[in-house]
């Protein structure tokens, strides 16, 4: 018999771990193929540090071919999946179609930005799920401060140095906390008009920041945010977004050029196309991560609804921690289905959470022990270094340098607003004209200038 | 009297130094404005290290607002210059026009890629003058190796891992030397078919590499290149470039997907539009860097033809070293024209040259003392650290890490082939659809797939 073909779709936490573990378990007894739009695994939890200039983008991008021996990488985005014919169609980076067959399929397609039906948000907000978005935000924030420093009109200056973050979960809280630090540092070399200071707003409909954490940690994180100057508005969200700013649900209109959307994620819409039972958009699997009725199909990570064995009737939440650990179980069970080792059910124990608030501030509850301040910051950074599958020394070196040197801030201008739309099934890629799924701007009908770039000169500001 | 307005066009070596020195000399007695398409000064000599993944792009980009106090930055590209009306028109990053007036004008517009009338080169080659081009090349080389490693067909594999560099001056020699190192390192984790190895060709019509250096150094550099595996072909150039490869002047056809164009530079075409006397495209100035007949206009750097006082009838060559030192003299003379200090003529003494061949290899002749091997490498890196106006510690840290860690190699996919055309008056910017001076790809007529991306999947290779 020829070697069985294992196809893994997606190289996020779940897919990367599945591929790495399977390569180790099967040795040369199976052909492992990994289908992913990029040639790197993105360590998402550190994305806010890329956006705020602490880390360079390559630091959080771990090379797939460089770290996954015995795994064949196919660059492309999965399209139609045919569970009966056992094929997956995909579109390569140049827009051409290809098809891959399989004997075992692992769906680890992850999640994308969650949208809410709020007028103007899809046009004016940017999400936070991939490197292009993070680099866009880094450029954008730098540009706003440079333009604010050069602005003569107080109103325009104030709008440019006001930044609105919606969603006070892990990502939004980190973005606001680290964003305030970043912009404060920028204005030290480029002072604003007398008395003006960059202002970050953090909004959430929840009653407190980091609602997933215990209340004590949540309060201490909020204290750090407020002390730093972040305008924390709980119980508040956005009613409408326009070119000029955002209308809040409490009736206030905030002049701003920046709306960062961190309200959470939803499963990759690819899951819907399977025609299999879903749970809130996630593909239902059994505790062995198998799709009922398809013994050759497995799913894990954000895109899979995995029963929580400790809480009957519930499913494991969409977190990197679960995805990472499900990947390992999934690999074991795929191998077991090929006669290598034995399968086991997915059971999790919460290891706790870490939230990096920038500098020496953080909130963490490792193994349930609530920590804040420098001890939490040490745990947080140690956790990330331990959890990253590569690039550790370089990340640690960047942190060291950031602690002693001024932050680097330049606009590289490589990612434009229109190439990182909020509504995207593939936030890991910057859109380019002519690429699949894009409505490219054409010469005849130039793209409308996005709001952040419309006022993009010193002359008018 | 109100404060005189000094306008500096261009923030390369000459313009940056002029701005920095003028800010120091004039204190608050003049308004200094710097017009530049980017908000950073690019330390060009280290660009090959960005392309080959040693340094991150921000390392060689020194923030203008962050390092130039008392200088107002206007982001834009200079267009029409009216010496009589004393105005400079410019186009901002969003394509809108603006006008700046001046009492003193400093033209430091630099140079762009030199083209030669060789069929196919403008379409298939990429230059090496800005960060977008360097990042494009980094992605491109990584992609070629990944595709070569996955290729079944020996011919395709070989074409993908063949890289042609034209021009054996400083830049081309560094690119070929460091490129061979980079790709050799990549194939250690992604082995090619049996017996295959990445192959870099270095071509030049000259008889030896680095013809500007003394012959002994030139020979020793060539030995390093050959020992490393670079195919050095002197007395040879490109006759034609096609999708499939390049036809050399010696009749050989080389299958390749990569043609790097380092044949040199030409003055920014803006100089021609002035209607003033030129010397090979460079604006003629007197030894005080003043434009004859326009006491209020100065020029320096690659775009200016500065008389070489030690070699009557000749002009100083287009090098960063001259530009940097002319910037200082220019600032003094502008200040002198405003009654601050006294003017002086530009006189240079060659400080020697440094060529970084990667790893511990280099060629240098500091103060005329020829060095090669590790001593030259130490001098080279020390020279760069001393010469950079910022980011030194971070560059040194990256070098340290690169010496002990495997090179990071991922495709970030942010710069596409069509956005960095060889023929460009502004290689410092990535072209975007709808931007000024661009023929954007449109939905109706999609851009032809560039040769390097045409074969961009594993399936067909």
UniProtKB/TrEMBL annotation, chains A, B:
Q: Which UniProt keywords apply?
A: FAD, Flavoprotein, NAD, Oxidoreductase
Q: Where is the composition biased (Low complexity)?
A: 433-446
**Domain FAD/NAD(P)-binding: residue ranges:** 5-327
Sequence ranges of Basic and acidic residues compositional bias: 451-461
Which region ranges are annotated with the description Disordered?
Answer: 428-461
The family note in this entry says: Belongs to the NADH dehydrogenase family.
Q: What is this protein called?
A: NAD(P)/FAD-dependent oxidoreductase
Q: Which organism is it from?
A: Streptomyces nodosus
């Amino acid at each position: 018999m020829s070697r069985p073909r294992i196809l893994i779709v997606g190289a996020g936490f779940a897919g990367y771990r599945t591929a790495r573990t399977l390569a180790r378990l099967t040795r040369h007894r199976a052909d492992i193929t990994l289908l992913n739009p990029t040639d790197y695994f993105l360590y998402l939890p550190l994305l806010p540090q890329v956006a705020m200039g602490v880390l360079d983008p390559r630091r959080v991008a771990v090379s797939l071919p460089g770290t996954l021996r015995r795994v064949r990488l196919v660059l492309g985005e999965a399209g139609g999946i045919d569970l009966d014919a056992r094929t997956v169609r995909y579109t390569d980076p140049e827009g051409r179609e290809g098809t891959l067959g399989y004997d075992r399929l692992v769906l680890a397609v992850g999640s994308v930005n969650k949208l809410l039906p709020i007028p103007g948000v899809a046009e004016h907000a940017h999400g936070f799920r991939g490197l292009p978005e993070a680099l866009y935000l880094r450029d954008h924030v730098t540009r706003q401060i440079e333009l604010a420093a050069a602005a003569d009109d107080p109103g325009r200056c104030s709008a440019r140095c006001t930044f609105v973050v919606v969603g006070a979960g892990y990502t939004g809280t980190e973005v606001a906390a680290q964003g305030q630090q970043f912009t404060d540092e920028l204005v030290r070399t480029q002072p604003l008009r007398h008395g003006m200071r960059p202002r970050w707003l953090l909004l959430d409909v929840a009653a407190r920041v980091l609602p997933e954490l215990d209340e004590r940690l949540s309060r201490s994180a909020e204290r750090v945010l407020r002390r730093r100057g972040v305008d924390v508005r709980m119980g508040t969200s956005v009613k409408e977004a326009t070119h000029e700013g955002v209308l809040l649900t409490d009736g206030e209109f905030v002049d701003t050029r920046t709306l960062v959307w961190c309200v959470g994620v939803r499963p990759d819409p690819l899951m819907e196309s399977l025609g299999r039972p879903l749970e809130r958009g996630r593909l239902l699997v059994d505790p062995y991560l198998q799709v009922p009725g398809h013994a050759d199909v497995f799913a894990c990570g954000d895109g899979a609804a995995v029963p929580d064995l400790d809480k009957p009737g519930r499913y494991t939440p969409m977190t990197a921690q679960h995805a990472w650990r499900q990947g390992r179980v999934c690999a074991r069970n795929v191998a077991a289905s090929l006669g290598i080792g034995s399968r086991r059910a997915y059971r999790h124990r919460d290891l706790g959470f870490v939230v990096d608030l920038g500098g020496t501030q953080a909130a963490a509850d490792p193994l349930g022990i609530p920590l804040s301040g420098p001890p939490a910051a040490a745990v947080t950074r140690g956790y990330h270094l331990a959890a990253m599958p590569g690039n550790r020394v370089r990340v640690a070196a960047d942190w060291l340098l950031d602690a002693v040197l001024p932050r680097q801030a330049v606009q590289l201008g490589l990612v434009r607003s229109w190439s990182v739309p909020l509504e995207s099934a593939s936030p890991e890629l910057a859109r380019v004209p002519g690429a699949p799924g894009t409505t490219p701007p054409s010469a005849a009908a130039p793209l409308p200038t996005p709001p952040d770039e419309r006022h993009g000169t010193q002359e008018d500001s």
